[in-house]
TrEMBL record:
Location of the Citrate lyase ligase C-terminal domain: 98-278
Nucleotide-binding is among the record's keywords: yes
Molecular functions (GO terms): [citrate (pro-3S)-lyase] ligase activity; ATP binding; lyase activity
Assigned keywords, A-Z: ATP-binding, Ligase, Lyase, Nucleotide-binding
Record flagged with keyword Methyltransferase: no
Species annotation: [Ruminococcus] torques
UniProt-listed Enzyme Commission number(s): 6.2.1.22
Superkingdom per UniProt: Bacteria
Protein name: [Citrate [pro-3S]-lyase] ligase
Length: 299
């Protein structure tokens, strides 16, 4: 076993993959610990999530804290730009509603914009995590651009790239593929366990999420979130989806409209910023990728 794992690590390093993650059973974690892997999180009796960097996750949390402390939003809540809000025990923090939103935005729609606007309006500070895993038809660089442009009118948002620890192929591979319910539940529990630690580091006390009537994976994730987050003193607000043309707005519908060259439908589903992008020359490669895809609907 030692030789096999060592060989697999060498293969990944040769491929340029130096930050490695693994899942294992709880009673096997010590073995992998002896081979240079460090525990990030565990679901007792089910699964342990590990990485090969001793300070990988802690460095990620420090990065998020630094992004928060240096943001213009945070400066409004601290007169001397110290770390007054960086610890969950901060007295100041208890009086604030600090919310989180995680979105893939593949691409950014009027539904996403509505959700962000609602969360921002009901919160003092909103941490918006943009899923940076490049597994979507719309590349991360474009998704991030559209989120920033579509929320530029809001002044209490701190933006973060999600990295490998929130809805990524490492923490939640089922999000990107159809999988058995039991596996999806295990992955969702793991992803949320990690999110709780992120929330504690940033003082997040509420998470917003859009209602999900169409996607099985996201629906299961929302159900587990609504149960697990309150157990960790984080409220969970599930927001009914914004509708257009008599049905809920979804990124899947937007991708279908792009695939079918249905610009009139597209205009009813996305904000001006997203529409402007998809009508520009820059969007041609992305649209071509969507048209070439066999499936554009996220289950």
């Amino acid at each position: 076993m030692n030789q096999i794992v060592t060989h697999l690590i060498s293969v990944q390093f040769e491929r340029g993959n130096t930050h490695l993650f693994l899942y294992t059973k709880c009673n096997s974690a010590k073995f992998f610990g002896d081979l240079g892997f460090y525990e990030i999180a565990r679901i007792d009796g089910q699964i342990v999530f590990m990485e090969n960097r001793k300070t990988g996750f802690s460095a990620y949390l420090e990065r998020l804290k630094k992004e928060s402390e240096q943001s213009e939003v945070m400066k409004r809540f601290t007169s001397d730009n110290t770390q007054i809000l960086s610890e969950a025990s901060s007295e100041t923090q208890k009086d604030l509603r600090i919310a989180a939103l995680v979105m893939n935005a593949n691409p950014f729609t009027l539904g996403h914009q509505y959700l962000v606007e609602k969360a921002a309006a009901e919160s003092d500070i909103l941490h918006l995590f943009i899923v940076s895993e490049d597994q979507s038809l719309v590349p991360f660089s474009v998704r991030k651009q559209l989120v920033l442009e579509g929320t530029a009118h809001l002044d209490n948002i701190i933006y973060h790239e999600s990295g490998p620890y929130i809805i990524s192929n490492a923490t939640f591979p089922s999000y990107f593929q159809k999988d058995a319910d039991a596996v999806m539940e295990s992955h969702a529990n793991l992803d949320l366990t990690i999110f709780v630690r992120i929330a504690q580091a940033l003082g997040i006390n509420c998470r917003y999420v859009g209602e999900e009537p169409n996607s099985q994976v996201t629906g299961i994730y929302n159900e587990i979130m609504a149960k697990k987050l309150p157990e960790n003193e984080i409220s969970c607000t599930i927001v009914p989806r914004k509708e257009a043309n008599g049905t809920v707005i979804s990124a899947s519908t937007v991708r279908t409209a792009l695939k079918n060259d249905n610009i009139e439908l597209l205009k009813t589903l996305v904000p001006e910023t997203t529409l402007h992008y998809f009508q520009s020359k820059d969007a041609a490669p992305v649209i071509a990728e969507i048209k070439a895809a066999e499936h554009v609907v996220h289950h």
